[in-house]
Specification:
The complex is a heterodimer of chains A (about 575) and B (about 50). Chain A has about 575 residues and is mainly alpha-helical. Chain A has 22 helices and no strands. Chain B starts with about 25 loop residues before the first helix and ends with a helix. Classes of the chains: A mainly alpha (about 575), B mainly alpha (about 50).
Chain lengths: ~575, ~50
């Protein structure tokens, strides 16, 4: 990064943050602070939903996922459109009619106070950890690439976000998300086309796709009914439906984005906008990674993309073993490069047999290169590095630094930070809303004035922001925190979704049965995950609500079914 | 600044304001249809280059 990059980076991030504070200055009531001015149109709502979901990891790591595993990850999003339809048709009108601040108020109105607090507590636990990860995950990659101090990167990013979220509340979140998403889209599209322009001479788009297909990178849809692969059409559509329904329908950080639209129509169209855009957006980010794979078949690539890992390996691994791995890797890469040039020449000459033979040899050489990389990874693990680097996270940033022009480098780094700020601001806003409304106003100070609650909301926003910063600074003490947080999220969403589905669709189930049913389902999900079933985590988004509903119905049947509840029917 | 009271939501049957899509049911079918087309295209891509 040179001076131009730093000017672009700081100018973009600080400019948007300062503009957000300036545009949302002035006093507000609690509704205005937590939900916004109620004038948002569908495009802004849809963009805000996308921005909240898409963290820096989406733009920094997903291309690496496409590079390593191809397009298959796109199936993870297949259930999203159907979840959006159900939320727009059923959840949203009820949320708006009841004029809720948080989704968990619905559980209080429909069931009882303890069920509301259970839903809110599960949300605060998950999202509190999530807010720390939102800044930790990109900070660890970017600080290691640029040699910035990790703690300082986390603190600066976190404080910028806290300042504008505390100052402007929900409106500041939405306003800054609009401009930050603009920065992200411009930067990613520019990177995509520059990558295509930098492909080797003579390699057309059709050649690139054929080559990617030859290395199994374009297997986007897998219809096999096997439950073990993480991403298939069925796990993505069915498990992904319940995951999306839990996240968009019951997670306050998303509910807050769409309940305050100018009208029911605007909120619904915002949800439909997301339903239409999300799969194509993820597809293009993954396709960028697939093209990175093709690009690096013709360009020199390192044994390990993470520089920190390379340096640690050089210092700690037995020299003879490391030299052997490096020599095997270099031989495999040379052979692969030669075979790919032969493949390209055969294609140009119309020699299908020669092209197939060259491609097969290139695939074999590529497998030997991958084997060398795995051996390097094993040497690294044996040396116990201080931080675990996920190789996929470093592929895209390595390309950006080595091949893109200055100015655009700064813009792309700004895009990664903007994505982190987008998600984190929405999370802080939601955490503060739930803490203020579900706990503070409900349990501690039920009869205070509006100004007091706005002040309390600002304090809680700052508290959660500082909590996230401190947790992120100490995150490296917890082994594999990213994986742990993802698993916790997947395992805990199910019971909350079960509660909401019962609130909407099972009017004869009452609070006590729902509360204990949710707790029993949660316990059984944990037992199944840790000791019984070995299946893709996506399936727990189906198992969790199913168990919750089953147990609650059984408990309610034992108590005797009550008359229909009035609230959310 | 006080947040303005939200206007009452129109009834379910009210038109969506979208050309050619007068009911929400039609909008939902369109979204489901686009999903089917996208999955079909992704399947074609997988098969063409496998």
């Amino acid at each position: 990064m040179n001076t131009l990059d730093y000017v672009v980076l700081l100018g973009t991030l600080l400019g948007v943050a300062v503009y957000g504070v300036w545009r949302t200055r002035g006093p507000r009531d609690l509704g205005g602070y937590l939900k916004g001015d109620g004038r948002s149109r569908w495009f802004i709502i849809g963009l805000s939903i996308i921005a909240t979901q898409a963290s820096a990891t989406t733009f920094l790591s997903t291309p690496g996922q496409g590079y390593q595993g191809g397009l298959g990850f796109v199936q993870n999003y297949f259930g999203g459109p159907f979840a959006m339809i159900l939320i727009a048709a059923v959840f949203l009108p009820i949320f708006r009619r009841l004029k809720l601040f948080t989704a968990y108020e619905l559980l209080g109105q429909r069931f009882d106070a303890k069920t509301r607090l259970l839903g809110a507590a599960l949300f605060l636990t998950q999202r509190g950890i999530g807010a720390a990860l939102t800044i930790y995950a990109p900070a660890i990659v970017l600080s290691s690439v640029f040699d910035w101090p990790l703690d300082l990167t986390i603190i600066c990013t976190g404080l910028v976000c806290v300042i504008y979220t505390v100052a402007g509340g929900s409106d500041a979140v939405r306003l800054t998300q609009k401009y930050q998403m603009g920065v992200i889209f411009v930067a990613m599209i520019a990177a995509f086309f520059l990558l295509l322009a930098k492909m080797p001479a003579g390699l057309g788009l059709g050649d690139a796709l054929t080559l990617a297909g030859g290395f199994h990178k374009l297997e986007a849809v897998d219809y096999s009914p096997n439950l073990h692969p993480r991403y298939t059409f069925w796990s993505g559509t069915i498990g992904g439906f319940f995951l999306a329904l839990s996240y968009f329908g019951t997670d306050q950080s998303q509910v807050q984005r769409y309940i305050s639209g100018a009208s029911l129509r605007e909120s619904r169209l915002g949800l439909m906008f997301h339903a239409l855009c999300k799969i194509p957006m993820q597809f293009f980010i993954l396709l960028l990674g697939v093209f990175l794979f093709v690009f690096y078949q013709f360009e020199p690539s390192p044994l390990l993309y993470a520089r920190q890992s390379r340096e640690f390996l050089a210092q700690t691994a037995p020299a003879d073993q490391l030299r052997a791995v490096e020599a095997d890797f270099a031989r495999a890469r040379d052979e692969e490069g030669r075979q790919l040039q032969a493949w390209l020449a055969a294609r140009r000459a119309g020699d299908a047999t020669g092209a197939a033979a060259a491609l097969a040899s290139a695939q074999a050489a590529n497998a030997r290169g991958d084997d060398a990389r795995h051996r390097a990874g094993a040497l690294l693990d044996a040396a116990h590095p201080p931080t675990q680097a996920n190789e996929a996270d470093y592929v895209f940033i390595t390309f950006i630094l080595n091949y893109l022009p200055h100015g655009l480098i700064g813009l792309l780094v700004a895009a990664f930070f903007a994505a982190a700020l987008n998600s984190k601001a929405a999370e802080l806003n939601a955490l503060a809303s739930s803490t203020t409304v579900d706990f503070y106003r409900h349990l501690v100070r039920p009869n205070a004035g509006e100004a007091h609650y706005v002040f309390a909301s600002k304090c809680f926003t700052a508290f959660w922001g500082l909590f996230a910063i401190v947790a992120a600074v100490y995150a490296h003490l917890v082994e594999n925190i990213v994986q742990a947080a993802n698993i916790v999220g997947s395992l805990f969403y199910g019971a909350v979704l079960g509660l909401f589905l019962m609130a909407f669709f099972l009017p004869r189930v009452r609070g006590t049965a729902a509360f204990w049913g949710a707790l029993a389902a949660q316990a059984l999900v944990l037992v199944l995950y840790y000791w019984v079933l070995d299946i893709s985590y996506l399936w727990y988004n189906l198992i969790g609500p199913a168990l919750c509903i089953l147990f609650s119905l059984a408990l309610q049947a034992a108590q005797g079914f009550a008359p229909k509840a009035p609230a959310a029917s | 600044m006080k947040s303005p009271a939200p206007a009452p939501d129109p009834p379910e049957s009210e038109t969506t304001g979208l050309p050619g899509l007068r009911t929400w049911r039609a909008v939902y079918w369109l979204v489901a249809g686009v999903f089917a087309v996208v999955v079909g295209l992704l399947t074609m891509l997988s098969r063409m280059f496998s």
